[in-house]
Amino acid sequence: MTEKTPSTPKLPVSLAANPKLSSWVRFASDGHVAVSSGKVEIGQGIVTALAQIAADELDVDIARVRMVRASTAGSPNEGVTSGSLSVQQSGRAIRQACADIRQIFLTAAAERLGVGPEALDISDGTISGPGNVSTSYWELAGEISLDRDATASAQPKQSSRRAVAGQSVQRLDIPDKVFGEPRFIHDSSWPGMLHGRVLRSELSHASLVDLKEDGARQLPGLVAIMRDGNFAGLVSETETGAELALAALRKGASWTLRETLPDETGLAEWLKSQPAEHSVIDSKKASKPFAKARTIRRQYSRPYITHGSIAPSCAIAQWNGDRVRVWTHSQGVYFLRADLALVLKIPLENITVEHLEGAGCYGHNAADDVALDAVLLAKAAGGRPVRLQWTRADEMSHAPFGAAMTVEIEADLDAGGEIVDWRHSVWSNGHTARPGRANLPALLAASELASPFPRYIATNPAQASGGGADRNSIPLYDFPSWQIECHRLTTMPIRTSALRTLGAQANVFAIESFLDELAAERGEDAVAFRLRHLSDPRAQDVIRAAARRAGWKPEKREGIGHGLGFARYKNTGAYCAAIAEVEGADDISVRRLTIAVDVGEAINPDGVINQIEGGAIQATSWVLKERVRFDRERITSNSWSEYPILRFGEVPEVDVEVISRPEIEPVGAGEAAHGPVTAAIANAVFDALGLRARNLPITRERLIAAMDLAS
Amino acid sequence: MPNIRFRLNGVETDIDADPETSLLATLRGPLGLTGPHFGCGAGECGACNVLVGDQAVSACDTPLWSVADKDVTTIEGLGNAQKPHPLQRAFIAEQALQCGYCVSGILMSAAALLKRNPDPSNAEIRAALDRNLCRCGSHNRMVRAILRAAAEMRNP
Q1: Which of A134, A290, A609, B70 has the highest Cβ tally under 10 A?
Q2: Are A329 and A357 in contact (CB under 8 A)?
Q3: Short-list B148, B33, B37, CA closest to A392
Q4: Could you tell me which CATH number the domain at B86-154 has?
């Protein structure tokens, strides 16, 4: 558990990596406080939550807090905005940095005002003491340098003394978005800006054997056509001109197939047959010998899933001599810069990468790829900025996908039907191919150039960082012994990288489905069965809360089913239990999701609810509809009609209870719901129809197949 | 280039352009209105929805010639921070979005719905928005916000 230990003067991890206080906070002369974070807004409301933390710790009105966009020109380097870690990492760092700063200013104010620091109060940045003496952060800012390292000598406020954190403050970015103000990178316009497009084949792995440029060259506004090996693109004065030129260039291109894709129909078995790196994730030996009476084995699978951002990825780049400036909606500006330096073979300091908001990305989509594309095309723009946007089809066929997975669980039961040994194996490509982690660039165009870099094969984060394919594969249940194994493919015909929850969705789906099956077989209630295998009280509390809220277990009605799913994200993050109510007619529809979540301290409770609702609805879409389709040459699901997602009329009601624990360090909420909701739906389908759906998505065809197997 | 005239957010507008150019490219390019967003270019996601007359249409597959002499309203014409439309106020009050990229199109679909049906049911709202995609999962908040705005507009 992560209860706070008040006397430990240890810096939070992000602050230890970026200890200089001035890299986090500056007092602007206009009465504002500029707060920098290395984490970026991706629609999750992080900028608001961080502003709340700063406002609280400094005792200033939140309206005075200006959140600075992340940039390699000066922001703290906090790696990547992922893994539901932003509140945990950036939030703790800002909280501690602000506590230190508050203390520094109190000491200086005490000296200036001639009173003891304990007699001073801070209210909205004004520091006052007995006898109407006062000063302020801004008055003192000129004489106090924050170019000093954090010491964590000051103690952040007790949770009971926080006035802003813990409140459902309205998000700072929302007004611009509902008024259509240009806030997204897509809507940014720089003086002299040109428009680029990249030509990519529909084939997943293709060589550009010929490119006839005449058609495109005749079009008005064309500035340049660029080709470097299999990478080709163009720059035009206008976006419409760029679109027309791309169409013309596409007509003039001849491609040959370089490599085939696997057979989509046998995907789960294909994953198990590929060369792989094998690892034992965890093992636990029973303290006393057990007698096995029988063994049950079940296999589960999920397909490749696309991130499916509503906005195609976009970037802007501008060269000035041998220096380049890049605007991006990447989740990690420093990591992107590292990969750009590898590809361009120029020093890091020649590259500035700045964040601008994009649409929700849900993981590592083409945000980084498009930045390299823009940088390459901008070389031909004579120093003018080039804005490049991918096509919808490229976004859905050339961006990395969430990896397909096969999970096998085998359990030994004793004569009483109790679990005595548990074995869990995962086969999957790696779940991260983000830039900036290796000596090899992970950006798409790097492998397309005339002097190409080898294709970057996705890997898995270490289990200590939450794991990848193996995320949430270690059970939270008190089984006496287990063996957890992961098989990461070392080939990668279909590109994969981080998609929200990484492997957790499939692992939780498998574990929770398996347990549900065992409980049903024993005739034991699903809630009771889980509770007696869980000793963590926070785990028990979310399950009990969800059950209470859903009126567990509702009376049985024809065609309606209820199911439960539970997980603690990454085994160290948010606890979440979900109960699904489904209706099984021609197709399965999810009518209602009842969810309880425990994120420790909820900095912005409505923000937590918003994230959980969103995650629950997105997971419902994955479960009921989503599957990347492909033939042996190309991804065929490259439009919304070929890759349908959940629509308004199909969205379930979502009811969320946040269990508040202000005394416990906060963790993120963005990925907590996906696994539990997935399992809850599958278990509810069984309750409604008596069919175990073990392969995602749960479609009518899959259920008919399950019915055939059962009969 | 032919000259095409229409009323844009209540203002007479004329532009010399290829009549086959999409309305979206014209709005975002020469007319500088970036509220309607490009999402798919095929009328499948609704991120670029605008009003033509009282109808919500996807601007990405609407050719410019088809709006000649018509009224076109974009999110910028619906309201602004100084004079917000009840729908915009309600979306803020309900915090009815996450990333917000789809929201300008959704607001226009909702505005068209409230023009023809000032008192829609939850199901009617969902039906009216069925061609708008939201990937963040903010659907239910948006429906709540539209119900709130409709109530406010009926009883100002």
Answers
A1: A609
A2: yes
A3: B37
A4: 1.10.150.120
The DSSP bridge partners found for residue A324 are A319, A351
CA proximity to B147, closest of B104, B115, B118, B105: B118
CATH code, domain carrying A148: 3.30.365.10
Q: Is the CA virtual torsion A379, A382, A388, A393 positive or negative?
A: negative
Concatenating the DSSP letter of every residue in B3-24 gives: EEEEEETTEEEEEE--TTSBHH
pLDDT digits (tens, 9 = 90+) for B91-123: 999 999 999 999 999 999 999 999 999 999 999
Structure tokens at A560: 């309606």
What pLDDT, on the 0 to 100 scale, is given for residue A6?
A: 46
Claim to verify: residue A247 and residue A206 sit in the same structural domain:
yes
A173 CB neighbours in chain B (<8 A) are 100
Q: Is residue A531 part of a domain?
A: yes
A565 three-state secondary structure = strand
From the list A472, A482, A511, the residue with the least C-alpha distance to A280 is A482
Interface predicted TM-score of the whole assembly (ipTM), two decimals: 0.97
Q: Quote the number of domains for chain A.
A: 3
Q: Are A128 and A134 in contact (CB under 8 A)?
A: yes
Superfamily of domain B3-77, CATH level 4: Beta-grasp domain (3.10.20.30)
CA distances (Å), origin A622, targets A119, A187, A539, A652: 57, 29, 25, 13
A·B CB contacts under 8 A: 168
Q: Is residue A330 over pLDDT 60?
A: yes
The answer, for A362 touching chain B at a CB cutoff of 8 Å, is: yes
- pTM listed for this prediction: 0.96
Per-window interface: B 78-117 vs A, CB < 8 A: 78-81, 84, 88, 91-92, 95, 97-104, 107
* Residue A526 sits in the same domain as residue A659: yes
Could A178 and B45 be called an inter-chain contact, meaning their C-beta atoms sit closer than 8 Å? no
Q: Enter the tokens of residue B126.
A: 């969902």
Window from A80-84, A171-175, B132-136 with minimum mean pLDDT: A80-84
Instruction: Output the DSSP codes for B41-103.
Output: SSSSS-TTEEEETTEEEEGGGSBGGGGTTSEEE-HHHH--SSS--HHHHHHHHTT--SS-TTH
* Rounded Cα–Cα distance for residues A622 and A543 (Å): 23
Asked if residue A22 and residue A139 are part of one domain, the reply reads: yes
User: CB-based burial of residue A563 (10 Å sphere; 0-12 exposed, 13-18 middle, 19+ buried)?
Assistant: buried
Same fold, B3-77 and B86-154: no
> Residue A473 has what pLDDT?
98
Distance CA(A631)–CA(A430), nearest Å, equals 22
Domain that holds residue A585: 503-711
Please answer yes or no on whether B99 and A42 come within 8 Å at the CB atom.
Answer: yes
**Do the beta carbons of residue A2 and residue A600 sit within 8 Å?**
yes
Of B42, B76, B88, which is closest to A639 when you measure between CB atoms? B42
